[in-house]
């Protein structure tokens, strides 16, 4: 007898018909004698709808109240799925995050899981029941409801799989695995049978929303066997593997992109020691996370300093920078929220030169101007105008022959 954690995303539970289909799939696995814990997201569109309701009242709603609101989406689907299971003769018991209990810190809307009480779940499983747990939510020490950030049901599933020492954690979604890039942008994208944990971590952190980054971190930390599969069609999906097999690894495994960033530049800053700190200090003090940074030195002993932030923080970062600009006697601040970051990822890039030049040539051939570049051992990221996103992703996909099967 094996124990599986199955997670179904918003589209997979987006209607009564789909909830019935999920119930059938779960019952089938349960009838084979395995123990099944199911984690569900809210119905598709529901979390966005709740956020819009809150924003209609307040631009920056209180975090605690926001989490009380957002957690309702998943409370609806756990109960409906349990009813659907009962209806077809499968005993099921639903839990909200706080009932389980999934203990988190108190960082509302982006809480981290600290501990999970697995005993109540185990006792239901041992009685032959399916346990249905609300994704994306937990409770803090003071009994406040918390949520885990967008896409957080993935993390609930992986954390439960770790706590219960499940044999596998299956993330069922609206695509049949992890692809070389988002198949919505490049229809020629290819499903990967396997992806290394390290690559999946980069892809998720660079914007591939197929798995929430924290779920991948959790899986790595606790060695959870993780697989991404389709809710709608049979198949083996993509296994996140912890073994690196350099023989098989392609130079580039995938292309990720992030539309959620904005770019800010302060130019004509006197080039003196401490200037980077003077620019970024106030941004950090405003609790704004910075992603890419570049600094150019001009001939006249001044410097231009450019960095990117999340688009949600764009206005606040601009305000902080305008203030710094006046204080430092710098020339001007320019800001651009019409950009996108595109990254190529692959463990194979470690041992091969020339990857960057292939990337830059593919973009040059399409006449796409690169605004920023950053690299690490297994990725290269560039920032370009958002309007070239599709063109750039497709050009890179073809330049690195990602539509073709990797040669081992
Ligand atoms: P769910 O609601 O099931 O959690 P998500 O929308 O969060 O689903 O994640 C699935 C989506 O991720 C896909 O529909 C796809 O558009 C997108 N995606 C982005 N990058 C990739 C990738 N490399 N492989 C597969 N899907 C990707
Ligand atoms: N419902 C939440 C969201 O839309 C969590 C999830 O789907 O994973 O972000
Ligand atoms: Mg998701």
TrEMBL record:
InterPro entries: AceGlu_kinase-like_sf, ACT-like_dom_sf, ACT_Aspartokinase, ACT_dom, AKii-LysC-BS, Asp/Glu/Uridylate_kinase, Asp_kin_monofn, Asp_kinase. One of its GO terms (cellular component) is cytosol. Residues 264-338, 344-408 form the ACT domain. Its EC number is 2.7.2.4. GO terms for molecular function: aspartate kinase activity; ATP binding. Transmembrane segments: none annotated. Pfam families: AA_kinase, ACT, ACT_9. It comes from the Bacteria. The keyword Oxidoreductase does not apply. Coiled coil: none annotated. Pathway: Amino-acid biosynthesis; L-methionine biosynthesis via de novo pathway; L-homoserine from L-aspartate: step 1/3; Amino-acid biosynthesis; L-lysine biosynthesis via DAP pathway; (S)-tetrahydrodipicolinate from L-aspartate: step 1/4; Amino-acid biosynthesis; L-threonine biosynthesis; L-threonine from L-aspartate: step 1/5. Keywords: Amino-acid biosynthesis, ATP-binding, Kinase, Lysine biosynthesis, Nucleotide-binding, Transferase. Substrate binds at residues 47, 74. It catalyses: L-aspartate + ATP = 4-phospho-L-aspartate + ADP. ATP binds at residues 7-10, 173-174, 179, 184, 209-210. PROSITE patterns: ACT, ASPARTOKINASE. Belongs to the aspartokinase family. This is Aspartokinase.
